[in-house]
Every structure is written in structure tokens, then in C-alpha cells.
Write a structure and sequence with these properties.
It comes from Streptomyces anatolicus. The chain is α/β, with parallel strands linked by helices. It is built from nine helices and five strands. It starts with a helix and ends in a 9-residue tail after the last helix.
């Protein structure tokens, strides 16, 4: 392949990603605002925040946990074996997403309690794990934000016994607009599409929700519990004070 062809495809990928980002900015602004308000409500009321995702969807969940510029109260709700490709074989993670009952066991042993907020990231929203995670979380009194591609609910079949999708069990749904298959590019002679954009878009949606929560808290006169970079002078001291003040709502340090 020539460098000219490579440049063309790279440009096409960036164009596709930018188009999707513009779509979610314009079409999901109301849902992003609603999601951010739920996060702010929980912070202001003494609640805790959790994020969950399986497989590559876990990347977006991890992106808002323990990071510079992020809300210190956002905790990763981890399910062993499904967080990433570090499990061997990697296909085990995909298999675990289809196991009935796993989500309930995870939530029952987690620190989540009524009034907390759980953000569930699942591109397809069709597997048992995210569906049951949402159902069980709401039954426990949590508010649930689902970040998913609604297109899957009309173009695929649910793998949960109820026939429902993640979007059917959320207080707020944020639609990533990702097409079924998550591949933005194709090329003559290449038999499969490529160029997934779900991570780019979903990470942006998560950060937009956090930004909305910060804005909402500030408007109420509440200082958002934000972390600073440990690689700037004073960052560690700042974070130490935040950890001390909010230690009972932060679980990634225990």
C-alpha cells in the first residue's frame, strides 16, 4: 500500500470520528446534561459514583477513574475476567459477558448502595452482563446511566433471557451513534471492515458527562472533588487532601 493510500484512509478515519463526535455533541446534548446532573446530584448528596464496562467498553469506564482532571469519587466496578484483554485467553472475557447471574453477584459484593450512580458502558448493550447489571443496580436503588449504541437494539437480538437491552433499564441513556459492527472504513480487496471509533466517541461522552457534573456542582456552590496530575508540582499534595476528605467514598485506594 502506498503512503498516499495510507494518508487517504487515515484522513477518512479522522473524518468519520469527527462526524460522530459532532453528532453526539448536537443530538445527545440533552442526555449528556441529564447524565451529568445525576452525577452531580449524587456527589452533592454524599453518594458515590461507579463506572462499569466489559471488554473494550471498559476503556471508557477506566478513563474517568483516578485520573487528572477527573472526579475523585468515580470508582471502577470491576468484574474479574472482563475488564480487558489481560485475561488469557482473551475470548474468556467475551464469554463471561453472556453468563447469567454474574452481575448480581458482583453488585451484591460491591460497596454500591441506594442513591449511588452507576455508569454502564456497553457498545451493543445486548449481552447478559450489562443488561443484568442495570436491572440489579436499579433494584438496589442506584441511578443508572447507560452509554450504548441504540442502533444495536433495532438491528440485533438481545442475548439476555428477557429479550431486552441495556437501554431498557436506565434512568438516562446516552447514544454513541456507533453503527453496528463498529468499523468506519473499508477497502477493496480487504474482506472485513475496520477502523473502530467507539472508544474515541465513548471516551468523549464520558468526559462530557463529567464536565457537565463539574459545571452543575459549581453552579450550586459545591466544590467538585477533582484530582490533579501527579506530574505537576503540588499535585500529590492536592490529591492527598482530596483522598482524606472523601476517603469514605473512594474505593480504589483500599
Amino acid at each position: 500500500m502506498s503512503s498516499k493510500s495510507e494518508s487517504k484512509l487515515a484522513g477518512q478515519y479522522f473524518d468519520a470520528a469527527i462526524d460522530l463526535l459532532q453528532r453526539v455533541r448536537d443530538e445527545e446534548s440533552g442526555n449528556i446534561a441529564a447524565a451529568g446532573t445525576l452525577l452531580a446530584d449524587a456527589v452533592a448528596a454524599g453518594g458515590r459514583l461507579f463506572a462499569f464496562g466489559a471488554g473494550h467498553s471498559s476503556l471508557a469506564a477506566q478513563d474517568v477513574v483516578y485520573r487528572a482532571g477527573g472526579l475523585a469519587l468515580m470508582n471502577l466496578l470491576a468484574v474479574p475476567g472482563v475488564v480487558g484483554v489481560d485475561v488469557m485467553p482473551a475470548t474468556l472475557g467475551s464469554a463471561l459477558e453472556r453468563v447469567d447471574g454474574l452481575a448480581g453477584a458482583v453488585l451484591d459484593s460491591s460497596p454500591a448502595r441506594p442513591g449511588d450512580v452507576l455508569v454502564i458502558v456497553s457498545l451493543s448493550g445486548r449481552n447478559s452482563l450489562p443488561v443484568e447489571m442495570a436491572m440489579n443496580a436499579r433494584a438496589l436503588g442506584l441511578k443508572v446511566i447507560g452509554v450504548t449504541s441504540v442502533a444495536y437494539a433495532t438491528e440485533t437480538r438481545s442475548r439476555h433471557v428477557s429479550g431486552s437491552f441495556l437501554k431498557d433499564h436506565c434512568d438516562v441513556v446516552v447514544d454513541s451513534k456507533i453503527a453496528v459492527g463498529d468499523a468506519e472504513l473499508s477497502l477493496d480487496g480487504v474482506e472485513a471492515p475496520f477502523g473502530p471509533a467507539s472508544s474515541v466517541v465513548t471516551n468523549a461522552l464520558m468526559q462530557a458527562m463529567v464536565a457537565t457534573a463539574v459545571e452543575e456542582l459549581a453552579s450550586r456552590g459545591v466544590q467538585p472533588p477533582l484530582l490533579r496530575s501527579g506530574n505537576v508540582d503540588g499535585g500529590h499534595d492536592w490529591n492527598g487532601r482530596v483522598f482524606q476528605e472523601y476517603g469514605d467514598r473512594i474505593f480504589y485506594r483500599h
